[in-house]
Amino acid sequence: MRILETTVSSPTTIDEAWTMWKSCEEAITFIAGGTFLQTKWEKGVAVPSKMLHLGDVLEYRQIYMDTERQIHIGSFVKLAECKNHPLIAKTLPQLSQTIEKIAAPAVRNLGTIGGNIANRVGDTIPLLLALDAEILYLNKEGRQRIDLQDWFEMTECSIILEVIITLDDEEKSYLFTKKIGRREAFSASVVTLAGKLTVKGNQLCKVRIAAGGGETQPSRLRNVENILQHDQIIDSNVLKRVYQALMTEYRPVEDAFYSSNYRLKVASNLLISELEKWRGEYGGLYK
């Protein structure tokens, strides 16, 4: 019988974790709640030989708003804690709704918001992209801050410390998030879609649309955003162009259950449905 030889280090502070990591010459895997990695191991993915367990780190476990109306969510905040936090419930109820549909309660009690982002396919990511979230992270050079979308494009290893969301003061904005799954909360999503449309002076001044789902890494759909923001008055022809743009731009990964084409159609129909709902609230922008 093969015996796994895995070394696990458990720092209690971020500085201690950084020192351990910097002194390590081998590749290392970071783990906090471990819920996502567990699913990978159950599928036969090899257990890493070196892990840095961050579950005992006491820092970055808070949620608060600073004087610049920026919400800071510590990376090690449990998903369930984030969902139920009064500040999140009051200012970002859509994030609470998204978390409620992630896995089962037992998983949400273990999994962290940082882990959901770090796995690069988490269901919170499309909404956070739509919110222009930033990430405070730690690499071997120290603490850094960057847009979430730019963090996904990095190849270097890092530890997420905080998610930072700036609340805007625009009078009219429509924020939505949708997840279609095989069995609601207990399975990986077929499609996860989120968006934010902000109106100022009866014009769209900011459009953010992001999509993911399953093993697809979520990303902004910039061609779709440009169509919506450029045309302003959105009629049926523009909606057709939006549908076609999403079908071209969104690149879902297929699996044993759903083809990429099926996921494309689901995402396109979801977006058009949300735009129709938005039209009901801000009909002045529509012919």
Task: Describe the overall structure.
This protein is an alpha+beta fold. Helix content is 37%, strand content 26%. It contains twelve helices and twelve strands. It has a five-stranded antiparallel β-sheet. The termini are far apart.
Quick overview:
The protein has twelve helices and twelve strands. By secondary structure, it is α+β, with helices and mostly antiparallel strands.
> What proportion strand?
25-35%
Portion in helices:
25-40%
Average pLDDT over all residues: 87
| Shape, per Cα inertia axes | globular
Order of helices and strands: EHEHEEEHHHHHHEEHEEEEEHHH
- Biggest sheet details: 5 strands, antiparallel
Rg on CA atoms, Å? 20 Å
Q: Provide the spatial order of strands within the biggest beta sheet.
A: 4-5-8-6-7
Helix/strand-derived category reads alpha+beta
**Poorly predicted parts:** none
Number of distinct beta strands: 12
Oligomer: single chain
Count of alpha/pi helices: 12
- Please report the distance between the alpha carbons of the first and last residues: 70 Å
Overview features:
alpha+beta, five-stranded antiparallel beta sheet, 287 residues
Give the topology.
Elements: E1 7-9, H1 14-23, E2 29-31, H2 35-42, E3 50-53, E4 63-65, E5 70-74, H3 79-84, H4 86-91, H5 93-100, H6 105-108, H7 113-118, H8 125-130, E6 134-139, E7 142-147, H9 148-152, E8 159-166, E9 172-181, E10 189-200, E11 203-213, E12 216-220, H10 222-231, H11 236-249, H12 260-281
Parallel strand pairs: 1-3, 2-3
Antiparallel strand pairs: 4-5, 5-8, 6-7, 6-8, 9-10, 10-11, 11-12
Helix pairs in contact: 10-11, 11-12
